[in-house]
Amino acid sequence: MVRSRQTRLLFLNDMERLERTLFRLEQGFELQFRLGPTLQGKHVHVHTNYPAEGEKFDRLKFWPLDWINPTGREDDSDKYCKLDLQVAGSYQYYFCAGTEEKTGSGYIVVDPVLRVGADNRVLPLDCIAIQTYLAKCLGPLDKWQDRLRVAKETGYNMIHFTPLQKLGMSRSCYSLADQLELNPEFSPEGKNYTWMDVGNLVEKLKKEWNMVCITDVVYNHTAANSRWLWLHPECGYNLVNSPHLKPAWVLDRALWHLTCDIADGMYSDHGVPAHIENEHQLHMLRGILWDEIYPRTKLWEFYQVNVEKAVEQFRKLLQAGGKAVRLENEDKKRLRILPDPHCRRFGNTVDMTSALETFIPNGNEPSSIQECCNWLRNRLEELNVESYKEMHYHEEQATNCIVGNVVYERLADHGPKLGPITRNHPVVCGYFTFPFEDNLTFDQEMQLMSQTDKACHFLAHNGWVMSDDPLRNFAEPGSNVYLRRELICWGDSVKLRYGEKPEDCPYLWAHMKKYTEITAKHFAGVRLDNCHSTPLHVAEAMLTTARAVRPNLYVIAELFTGSELIDNVFVNRLGITSLVREAMSAGDSHEEGRLVYRFGGEPVGSFVQPSIRPLVPSIAHAMFLDVTHDNECPVQIRSAYDSLPSSAIVSMACCATGSTRGYDELVPHQISVVKEERFYPKWNSEAKPSSAGEVNSQSGIIAGKLALNKLHEELSSKGFSQVYVDQVDEDIVAVTRHCPSTHQSVVAVCHTAFRNPKTYQYRQEVPPMCIPGKIEEVVLEARTVERIAGSYQKDRKSINGLPDHTVEIREHIQLHDSKIVKQADVMCKGRSEFVQEIEFEHLTPGSVIVFRVSLDPKSQELVGVLRRHLVQFSDHYKTGSVPDNDAPAILTTPLAAIMSKVTLADINVLLFRCDAEEQEDGGGCYNIPSWMSLKYGGLQGLMSVMGDIRPKNDLGHPFCDNLRQGDWMIDYVSNRLVIKGGALGEVGKWFQAMFTYLKHIPRYLVPCYFDSIIVGAYTTALDIVFSKMSNFIQTGSTLVKQLALGSVQMCGVGLHPALPPLAPTLHDVPYRLNDITNEKEQCCVSLAAGLPHFAAGIFRCWGRDTFIALRGLMLVTGRHLEARNIILAFAGTLRYGLIPNLLGQGTDARYNCRDAVWWWLQCIQYYCNMVPDGVNILMCPVSRMYPTNVSEPQPTGAWIQPLYDVIHEAMTRHMQGTEFRERDAGPQIDRNMTDEGFNIEAKVNEDTGFVYGGNRFNCGTWMDKMGESDKAHNKGIPATPRDGSAVEIVGLCKSTVRWLVDLHTHGFFPYATLTIRREGRNISVPYEEWNRKIQENFEKMFYVSHDLQDSNEKHPDLVHKRGIYKDSYGASSPWCDYQLRPNFTIAMVVAPELFTVERAWEALEMAEKKLLGPLGMKTLDPDDMKYCGVYDNALDSKNFNVAKGFNYHQGPEWLWPVGYFLRAKLYFAKKMGPEIYDKTVYLVKNVLSRHNIHLERSSWKGLPELTNENGQYCPFSCETQAWSIATILEVLHDL
Question: Do 1343 and 1365 meet the contact criterion of CB atoms below 8 Å apart?
């Protein structure tokens, strides 16, 4: 299978600690750390303990990774540091942002690679089939091969041995007497086998049998009779090193003496005989505990204070004049009791400082001191009572646990029924070792507690605590588990006490390290026994030791935490490869099937995932066993008939699987890890059923298991990675494994038998099954049957199974030869769905049938051909591909070559176009009836949906349903392009040809391959887009490229030209043939203001929006010719010295805005400065539609002027002053405007040079909301008139005048002065003079000074913020001038020379504090009484300020001004010095990262017009707006 290099991206976010999140990776993967939005712009350092090249792993050694920035730009969106993962294990990373303090961290786990055979081939983890052996049941080492051969002949490829060490006296497999010594029982008389001999056997099994061997490591306990433990009692929890356990030990001894007394009949008269049989006797036992045991032990005394002794000490201090020394301002302390570190009775003491603070005598006379001592005595007696009550609470729990234990062990049906209480079977298991004579009295034993040489040998046993926190050590101080008798105790083992580091217990750490090295030397992996109770830091250190010996160490564990998150802590810290899961945990077949689905594989028909993709959290890799070796016997819990079908269900799981020895032989009882002493049977192919010491393929279900294990390994090794589980009925489960490259499937139908068929009536009727595809063969059919072999008798020497049960199995047969299938009918669902309906007749409980299924030959060929054509996009498709000998001509050319002929305007159609644009062409966006319409008619509409579906493999999504149910969407994609003709039509034909194959493959595969085709075409189109753009875009970051797509999204050609015609003499103008008139017409690209509201028809093009967006979307992206055409088209519409607000193709234009002309002029300046030989545009011919203010629209070419003349006219008209009434004024052009609002004025103040205009009845700037509500009485009233001199218009005017002066100086502009009429005569006004006036007056009039006496301030009473710039000057409502809005930042960018650096910086800081939102800028200061940040255009109320969206520009956060704010910040930050500049760059990157996230998540793939307050979604906003995208792209260009 072809597999490209896999790269995963891990995005880092501030304060994100992911210690409980599992990230699994494979060796050979590349892991890239990337900056999330909260870190972009910060100086982030990533550290890891993954070993640097050539270095050994040191868990505590972290090193910093180097950042790589592929674009070399300031933008952080693509910056990464990486790890090439070649070494298995668990590794930690952390990162800091600017300081050494960790601001986030996590783990990665790299899987090991296992190898087998003489050729050292890889054994994939999902191929593993493991079988567990109790080592003590294998007999002498020289007999092991005969017994282990059973695993080989049953198809297992991994053997798990319980520990091979010398066992303790209990004979439990997990109670080890010596961790370093091989069990001597493995050496027969005359032999002395060593670990080397074991290693040789393991190596032989690996090379000759292709089997991997692993074994247990037991770190948590050792056998109570371990010889080394007597020499080193510090290695356990004893009464010397853990004195907090003394009360628990006292109770433990008291309970032992209670056992002796009950066993000796001393309590029979009290109603408690040795043989407890009923509730009454249990009640009496409780009474004995409360009446005799607890009063005798007086456990509360260990937690109490000797009152008299403490009071006397206090008295002496008072008499000596003792006073508390307390620092000033220190809180007064309460009386503190100091626990006795030696835990003696009445050993707790009083902190006398706190006593002196708490109890202060009224004087120094004896009576006052006595009174004070009495206060202390009373308080200490109260505290002692509290200790008594707390101990009473613990004793209640201890009583419940003791009685509960008696109930389980002696009365419960599911318990061991131990019978009478004896010294061998006590009331409760002892919690501590007692290696001394048992004939001591209780009081004599209590004296041993103070004898260190004796007390050090009273060691705490190990065990487990139900529902306890697995991350807490229950033997450490702070835990009362031993005292409360909550431990389910293993009386043969002592819990080991490591401390926090090797220095805390040197012998134990060294001993266990040596044990680990021996194990890792000889075994390929380990099972961590009792993992959830092993101290994490210990297991961590030991596994580091093991991996130093064997880097590809395979680690498994069984956790009982009850929480996946806590499981992840263990998996992360220890680098556990696989967690043991068990089918026996399922209560029915449905749950068993669910576990198969849960533990591995993707859904059938899953999407192809990209090789570079985000790293997503994983669940731990599963080792799914039918039963574990220490669990109850399935034959007893379920039935012998269930073993085969449940094994089949497990074997079909896409993960490691396995079993325990004895399951396959149908051993009808649990093989006890403690009590079992018999040996496993050997393999003998000639063995008879009655032979207890031998087995062969006819024993139990061995033959069936062999077939299933072989199938399991084949499926995983050949890439059958997709899984489908079907619950056929309540007892029948069908599991499908599917290969996504060959599209072969294997389907196992399993009839479980959780209940014995002899005693339970199963349904006779088995539902028929429909299997898509052609059944090639029956891989196997098998069922459990009885045979005549005698009934089961438990053998004394061998672990024998049921002799009278075997498997009847047939393998690799044709369907018609099956005994389970009655008939198989072939059906065709439509032209591409080949289905076989299976009717069963002998699918009895305990039976299994497995089918191998292929696509029908025609479908198989078509899929192969389709994959061959997809190879041009990815080598992934080579597997399973076949040549296309009859390929249509269009498919013989690579798609990239076909697409290279399309223009960017064509790609607007190919990728985008919203519903309004599509409708203009007579179509619409594709609608999914059960869901919704796509956002675009082009490929982006599909990609936005598939981008959400693909990572989750959400095949149940309505989108996928639509694809499976019919060809409607497929035809829509191709037909929409074919009908366009030309280069786009060729792309459509390519789709058509590809879809011809797609339509004839099985429908369940259509979503996957449709996605592959669309993704391939989309990415090819993007490559073409960027190749046609500027170098800045081509070499830019992902964010730059995403924003540049906004140029394609917004710039297109509709059915009707949106722009007025250009001069016929102008070169390089695009033309097309009009379908209706059959005449040539210009088809220049126009720029939509926003989607979906301003996309088509008369509302597509707006002067202001076009020229605010033009620099970013057209000049920065390199679309110079199209930018020229737009500039010249608008130039042709100049009238009254203005260009239109609403363009309306020029003939229906509205000249009701004062700012559009200045944005147009600014864009001409940008064009001249940014485009090579850009000044040539000034000479370009302009076809004037309105040569005079009163002209009717002129024919194209009737009136031609060079652009520089049009520019000069616009400037002259303003200097002269223009006043007019809109044409057709009235409700026919604006139903809300009052009559006065149609009067337009735009002039220049002769003193200041400021452009001014407007009135209080209209709104001539971008803040143009006109009131619409009759109910609120705001209809016809502008929310933001901004009449007078708007700050951004003054800035734009200054920029233009300065530029024209410069142009004239260099000979590119013929005019030095403007000629105007004043009082009947001509007056010349030099451009230089105009420039100087604005420069001299700007800060005088616009800056709000801190000087309260500033003579330039006309309305000091209206000032509410100082150190800012006014929004306007000379407004008809003077308070409007003083409103803090973001418009001054525009002037800062286009005319920075107007601003004093320090003042500008202060104003920008204020804007950042008050106006900057997550994505945009608040349009009004939140401190303003008019502020309202939520825009709702549909709400009509009586609230004047918000009705019908009146607050459109009174608070909602618009995106485009944030671009100017950030650019202004960057400009002036450079002037403020490097430190401030660095901080500003961080701010800019941080803000941009939020735009990046929005772009990635937006189904429109754009930036919105505005948001509500604090970045909240606004449903009335355009989803993607031209100027929003453009201005953000300009910020990146500035960076």
Answer: yes
